[in-house]
Structure formats: structure tokens, C-alpha cells
Amino acid sequence: MKFKPLRxxxxxxxxxxxxxxxxGLYIPDSAKEKPQKGEIVAVGPGKITEDGKLQKMxxxxxxxxxxxxxxxxxxxxxxxxxxxxxxxxVLGTIEK
Length: 96
What we know:
The chain is mainly beta and 96 residues long. It has no helices and eight strands. It has a six-stranded antiparallel sheet with strand order 6-7-1-2-5-8, with no helix packed on it. The chain has a two-stranded antiparallel ribbon with strand order 3-4.
């Protein structure tokens, strides 16, 4: 896949959620809520500040992030669902 986000946007692949609930019940795909966690697979170059300088991205490919629930735009690339969001919509990273 060759995709490069523009400016201060990142491409996030949703993390896989377990198929069973904690009580052992299977959850159908139609009842699942999309996670607010994912792994960054591509990043843009950064934001252009008001004085015309490039402010580099703090995030990098491979970071696992939490993001706002209704942020970004969903896209399909090669039959996989991704989310394009601005760096400002990322709430934080999860350290391994």
C-alpha cells in the first residue's frame, strides 16, 4: 500500500477487538462499536505554522494511539478499513 497523508494527518488502522465479551458471549459484527484505539501506519510531514515553517509530527509509524470517538474520515484501502485523522484529534499514545 502506498498512501501518504497530507500535512498534519495520520492514517490509523483500527485495533482488533475480541469476538467474545468478558462474560463469554459472542458479539456479532453489527453490534460492535468501532474502537477508539489503533496503530498508525502512515504520517504526513507536519503542520505549516502561521509564520510558514514546518512543525514536524510528534507521532510516528507504529505508535498505538487513542483518538476521539467521532474524529476523522473512514476509508477503505485494499479491503481494509482505516481512519484518517488530524494529529490534534489524537488523545495520546499507548506505550508497550
